[in-house]
Amino acid sequence: xxxxxxxxxxxxxxxxxxxxxxxxxxxxxxxxxxxxxxxxxxxxxxxxxxxxxxxxxxxxxxxxxxxxxxxxxxxxxxxxxxxxxxxxxxxxxxxxxxxxxxxxxxxxxxxxxxxxxxxxxxxxxxxxxxxxxxxxxxxxxxxxxxxxxxxxxxxxxxxxxxxxxxxxxxxxxxxxxxxxxxxxxxxxxxxxxxxxxxxxxxxxxxxxxxxxxxxxxxxxxxxxxxxxxxxxxxxxxxxxxxxxxxxxxxxxxxxxxxxxxxxxxxxxxxxxxxxxxxxxxxxxxxxxxxxxxxxxxxxxxxxxxxxxxxxxxxxxxxxxxxxxxxxxxxxxxxxxxxxxxxxxxxxxxxxxxxxxxxxxxxxxxxxxxxxxxxxxxxxxxxxxxxxxxxxxxxxxxxxxxxxxxxxxxxxxxxxxxxxxxxxxxxxxxxxxxxxxxxxxxxxxxxxxxxxxxxxxxxxxxxxxxxxxxxxxxxxxxxxxxxxxxxxxxxxxxxxxxxxxxxxxxxxxxxxxxxxxxxxxxxxxxxxxxxxxxxxxxxxxxxxx
Amino acid sequence: xxxxxxxxxxxxxxxxxxxxxxxxxxxxxxxxxxxxxxxxxxxxxxxxxxxxxxxxxxxxxxxxxxxxxxxxxxxxxxxxxxxxxxxxxxxxxxxxxxxxxxxxxxxxxxxxxxxxxxxxxxxxxxxxxxxxxxxxxxxxxxxxxxxxxxxxxxxxxxxxxxxxxxxxxxxxxxxxxxxxxxxxxxxxxxxxxxxxxxxxxxxxxxxxxxxxxxxxxxxxxxxxxxxxxxxxxxxxxxxxxxxxxxxxxxxxxxxxxxxxxxxxxxxxxxxxxxxxxxxxxxxxxxxxxxxxxxxxxxxxxxxxxxxxxxxxxxxxxxxxxxxxxxxxxxxxxxxxxxxxxxxxxxxxxxxxxxxxxxxxxxxxxxxxxxxxxxxxxxxxxxxxxxxxxxxxxxxxxxxxxxxxxxxxxxxxxxxxxxxxxxxxxxxxxxxxxxxxxxxxxxxxxxxxxxxxxxxxxxxxxxxxxxxxxxxxxxxxxxxxxxxxxxxxxxxxxxxxxxxxxxxxxxxxxxxxxxxxxxxxxxxxxxxxxxxxxxxxxxxxxxxx
Lengths: 544, 544
Known about the structure:
Chains A, B: InterPro entries: AMP-bd_C (IPR025110), AMP-bd_C_sf (IPR045851), AMP-binding_CS (IPR020845), AMP-dep_synth/lig_dom (IPR000873), ANL_N_sf (IPR042099). Two copies of one chain form a homodimer. Chain A contains 16 helices and 25 strands.
């Protein structure tokens, strides 16, 4: 027996039309090279409707991939809606990719057009000869002075919009499983792999950004997404803001800590989100700005150190809200909320709880399993296992079958590659990436936990722990340490510091000082680079 | 091109397993005839698993209808999950139905079993001979002394559970469009009609009870649903609470204002929900109780008078949160939130805003249209039209095709029968039911607005306005007024009072005093009864 409910597909046109109809008076602000642009949702919606016509005029296929190579701006948001609402597929290209990755991705996705901010054109154009499928480059003039090549494939965004009639009527996408957007994983190994979001997954994920025990986006919010719109759709914030009717402030090209702080203060931002590196860089500026409007600082992309979260709690009066996920999980999979069983915990214990990755979001199912045997592990906060994920916004495979399915279990769950423990209430705590675990004498050492302990030393700015081959123990950890400016510390002092904090057999076999931890294109520690650098390292057997 | 997301159906087993896995330590309290029962979600979940086995043992069909005739209790909540999670269809029977309606509904739905609270057995049992499909009656002993007939069809709930092994493993419903629950509309005209909720609609609606600009259910909440679980699934609160991990307090059979107030205070309830009548009855008790934990008083089922909402704001410090909807809309369609454009409004203007039905919930689309021509009306807060609704939890037809589809438009939207204006920000304001409008001289008079103005008179307890036939104007309004205990007022005094408050041609042609406004089984004004009573009424032509 079937239910007798209307067959209304869960599609992004709902997000667009809801915003247009209910929130036309709300504003979107974009910081530019020369000042700020402010546009009402009503005017923005007309531009989306014009852009829909432009995509037709350019001859983009019915499900053609629409590439973007853009900062966070209201015009990027126009593309976010116009592409999927007309059945095309938004493909956000990461502006920090290495040229060969960029070319690989655009060709692999078969992008038909790339919309590019003028300030980013110099990054894109040198590769243009290698793009095999792109027929048009549409330059969005963001006030930058970058020269525009004389090439028939190049169009001006504003000229195209001015010449286009706004699409009339309601956008309609019949099949909620149709592709809406795609994003390639940065992939520290192998080629980048494409994750293809459906309308259904994008809409459901947007709803999740509204739930009270999560980001709780509201019509009253003013949201500044620092997280780039080419990172898993800026964690769903753009679509979530439109669905909730929140005001949005886009930072544009100037991503310096001072520029972000100024925007937060000027626009009385209530919710902002970005990776830990961004928030670390802003700490020195927090005392000088009135940030009293902020109610939530969303932090994700990599584990949030307790000290960072506590610094914000001390200075802003609001702790960070940590969320965990990845491109393959749309990305929100967990949110580190403070639940009622913690009500009588000390501030310090709550800070520890916030440093965990937290609880599965509604509709998301998670489990931990032995990475080798697949055996499910208990939720006792002691057993570790790879997090596996299931849910309507979790990927089931990569675009064009890349990766051969090895990242998915036989019963269809995503193998995230992240290793965690889970407490009995369901709070997840990352301990490592499966590939970064150090397997010493048959036991696992968590490189991440060791890094956190080293970074607790007051003279240490950053630390990365990698495994090096070892004759007796198979692998042993070594620590690569960046010392804070103006400070100094010796290897022995770090080992002494660790002695009371970790098991003796966890002590690194060596401490190497480096100038900086190499990062991937999305700002994560590139341990691959460190492993290459220290691959031939020889240490004596530890005396453990 | 299709998205590459996991094919995870949106089904109620997710709600069950999420609650079981994450919130096992949370409590459900039920007030009983003799005290209070408290059960952990973990223990409750085992009982749901036993109940799943019981449904098999009783031989209930794979999609058999499972009737309930119960108060709001944790055992009713067991049925809420066990029936749909095993593929059956929960059918909540309204305990306030007249016997012939009850029999009609149970037969029409083809209920195979009815679970009945012992205290309600005397209401049910006299009709048992007329039930054509019910094979089993399972009595839930709630401590009442009602005699249990000696009949082989009767079973004891606890005995069945004790004898059943808990279902092991995960519940699974493959098709999210499968029926999960059904509820019959009270239907002031014609036979009651069945609305059949799907797993998809029930799960999406549950999510909506979690969004910040709505009820915003959270793990920190303690929720007391006063609204009966046989009214459109208690407005989605039971499933929403399980999804959010909120604690629940069920009032059981004692629905007196004092009993409710006592429960609210004792359990530090944060969110409660019910119809205006309930909250009116509680006003005299508010001063005597510590209700400082309450953050939201959800009110719906009929329009919420401004005076009622303001009384709560004054006494509790929190205004009522009005929601509008109906059985056919699952029921949440609008929520009367205070949006940011009202931030600088006066308290009185905000109170007026709260007395409106408010803004469409995410995923719900609403429009107003002329009830006769179907022409869509503008959102200028002046034009009126029947509200039409579309969305994934809006009914597309009634069970077994009842009503012949006349309640649905050609393009598949639900005709709600409610007439409203909409302001330019999308806030809906009910003015009447289509069938209650008074059509005088080609113009509409809103019976509801007229009633509200009459009820503003200090001596008036309740007022109902109905149309009576009129030779010249086709229809004219008359007012049926209930005077407050210990007060007195004349017809002329009421007309004088109205003179400055409504247009002259709106003034009722007569004011009749009655002892009480007749109510339907769900507590709404039964204007049908009044129209029957005053059908032959003759009045002189007004001098307008």
